[in-house]
Specification:
Blueprint (H helix, E strand, L loop, with lengths): L1 E4 L9 E6 L6 E2 L4 E6 L4 E5 L4 E6 L6 E2 L4 E6 L5 H11 L18 E8 L9 E6 L6 E2 L4 E6 L4 E5 L4 E6 L6 E2 L4 E9 L1 H7 L12 E2 L18 H10 L17 H16 L32 H16 L2 E9 L1 H9 L1 H7 L6 H14 L5 E4 L4 E4 L5 E3 L1 E3 L2 E3 L2 E2 L7 H16 L13 E5 L18 E5 L3 E6 L4 E14 L5 H16 L7
Parallel strand pairs: 21-25, 25-26
Antiparallel strand pairs: 1-8, 2-4, 2-7, 3-6, 4-5, 6-8, 9-16, 10-12, 10-15, 11-14, 12-13, 13-17, 14-16, 18-28, 19-20, 21-24, 22-23, 26-28, 27-28
Helix pairs in contact: 8-9, 8-10
This protein binds oxidized coenzyme A.
The site of oxidized coenzyme A (CAO) has 18 residues, from strand 22 and strand 25.
Length: about 525
């Protein structure tokens, strides 16, 4: 186990640790960032100088450190090149005795000064230095960010084209720079072998081309504040496709940390599922932008009721999840209506309103018994179709508070008067908000009757996990050809929406055909 110490951090003391990027037990590689320090002028990442497994960590966010303070312990694999380096450093042995892949501490024999200048930023007006990531005296590796610039189109990090020590800095935060302005002088120390190869090069290295950040990390809009984030956080933001300007920083001076980024992404994922009102809004599909309604005329804003929000959620869920088909048909209910009207005095005697709907319920229950594949659900956890041995029919009821669906249990076992009485009672309860939750549960099939209102057809949304819903529109007199003449018949439009994962087209058509036959001659319900 070896201790990793705070390196020479220049002419500053008591520097604040603003981020600890490793945890005990982490396996890290040479160059991985251990901590991020911040002075009042710049932030800097302190990388590991060897690979290994992180042991005890001696600093935490907010700690103040100085050169030589321990950052963490590192367990370095025995016999590895890294271990040899550590051992050599500890024993102050000459490093040339080690067969190193890369000389981490070169035999200093000469140095050259490289001046880093601002490359072509694509802007003639100049770009702002929003971050200076290094201080004079810092050791930098090739590729380490020196400064971060921001134009009106992009933010960009200017990396060091060489490894070495920052000898001079020519910019500070807030400066506006243009192409070819000096950024920093880097004193490049070279090993003897390197020098043999490069000493003949009299002119400085070409300036590193700027790395334009992903457009997802876009620049702040005019008037918005500058983003404070270190290179590692900026890199992570690019990876995640996060616009840093949208992230709130919890670090000192609102600096954005990696945790802030993770929290932002988590929050965004939640937002995808529920809008501010709690209603499901997207599930990953693009949301619909609102328009400024008020700018076109007066509007009234009515808060959505709890029932309305629940219905909106449920409809969205069902609409998005169920591959639905709607089968249309017509039933001849001329005789049914004649019979129903003939029951008027009996209906009054019993005090039970006998509308056409109880007949639709009774006939549907009969057909659901005959075609159990309609009275089913799909269980995607087990890849099973669940056929129910009971027929509970939900009835959509239009109430001032929103749509409610009370359930008539065992509709197949109940007589017409019983169904009519129960329907009337449940509809009244729904309209006066007195339904209990168990009176709205367990439906195996639903009927939505708009017949008393109007319309010729509609496509109800399948209330999954039920596999089907019957929509009933307004009956009307139609001229029906009986083989020799047109006859005036009262025709009822039927619309069966079904989940095509559970019910195939043949069964859908069989359902409406059989239902039509039952409603056409209700005596068959007795058979
Ligand atoms: N064709 C023609 N007339 C019809 C009919 C049809 N399919 N269904 C009912 N009617 C007539 C009846 O004959 C009756 O008139 P009379 O009193 O003159 O005989 C009247 O409409 C009865 O209407 P009702 O609404 O009082 O009773 P109901 O049994 O038909 O329906 C209920 C009860 C609770 C289902 C209904 O009030 C309701 O809320 N319907 C709306 C359902 C809904 O909103 N569905 C959409 C869900 S998705 O948003």
């Amino acid at each position: 186990m070896t201790a990793i110490l705070v390196p020479d951090i220049g002419d500053v003391t008591n520097v604040t640790v603003i981020e600890v990027t490793v945890e005990t037990g982490d396996t890290i590689n040479e160059g991985d960032t251990l901590i991020v320090l911040e002075t009042d002028k710049a932030s800097m990442e302190i990388p590991a100088n060897v690979s290994g497994i992180v042991g005890q960590i001696h600093v935490k966010e907010g700690s103040e450190v100085n050169e030589g303070d321990p950052i963490c312990d590192l367990e370095v694999e025995v016999g590895s090149e890294a271990a040899k380096v550590v051992s050599a450093i500890e024993k102050q042995e000459p490093l040339e005795s080690l067969e190193l892949v890369q000389p981490p501490l070169a035999q200093v024999s000469d140095s050259v000064m490289e001046q880093v200048i601002v490359p072509d930023t694509g802007s003639t007006d100049g770009v702002t230095v929003i971050e200076v990531a290094v201080s004079v005296g810092d050791q930098v590796n090739e590729g380490d960010t020196l400064i971060v610039l921001e134009s009106d189109k992009a933010s960009m990090e200017i990396p060091s084209p060489v490894s070495g020590e920052i000898a001079a800095l020519f910019v500070k935060e807030g400066d506006v720079v243009v192409q070819a302005d000096a950024v920093a002088d880097v004193s490049v120390t070279r090993v003897a072998d390197d020098l043999l190869d490069t000493k003949s090069e009299a002119s400085p290295q070409p300036v590193q081309e700027i790395q334009k950040s992903n457009t997802a990390v876009t620049i702040p809009l005019e008037g918005q504040s500058v983003v404070h984030a270190g290179p590692a956080v900026r890199a992570l933001a690019r990876e995640l496709g996060v616009e840093l300007i949208q992230v709130s920083g919890t670090g000192s001076r609102e600096r954005i940390t990696k945790d802030d980024l993770h929290e932002f992404v988590k929050a965004k994922l939640n937002q995808v599922q529920t809008g501010p009102s709690g209603v499901i809004t997207g599930l990953g599909i693009p949301s619909i932008p609102l328009v400024d309604f008020e700018s076109f005329g007066p509007v009234e804003r009515i808060p959505m009721s709890k029932i309305h929000k629940l219905t909106a959620d449920n409809m969205t869920r069902c609409w998005l999840n169920v591959p639905a088909v709607t089968q249309f048909d017509e039933a001849d209910i001329t005789d049914l209506e004649t019979f129903r009207k003939s029951m008027k005095s009996e209906s009054e005697l019993k005090g039970i309103k006998l509308t056409p709907l109880p007949f639709f319920i009774k006939a549907s229950a009969y057909v659901l018994r005959a075609l159990p594949q309609i009275n089913s659900s799909v269980d995607l956890q087990t890849d099973e179709i669940v056929r129910k041995g009971y027929v509970h029919i939900g009835i959509a009821v239009d109430t001032p508070g929103g749509l409610m669906v009370p359930v008539i249990r065992d509709a197949d076992k109940k007589g017409m008067w019983e169904i009519a009485a129960e329907l009337s009672e449940l509809a009244d309860k729904a309209k006066s908000k007195k339904l209990k939750s168990d009176e709205m549960q367990g439906a195996t099939f639903t009927i939505s009757s708009l017949g008393s209102i109007g319309g010729t057809a509609f496509t109800p949304i399948v209330p999954s996990p039920q596999a089907a819903i019957l929509g009933v529109s307004k009956a009307s007199m139609q001229p029906i050809w009986d083989g020799s003449a047109f006859q005036p018949r009262l025709m009822l439009p039927l619309c069966l929406s079904y989940d095509h994962r559970v019910i195939n087209g043949g069964d859908g058509a069989r359902f409406t055909t059989l239902l039509g036959q039952m409603l056409g001659d209700i005596r068959k319900l007795l058979l």
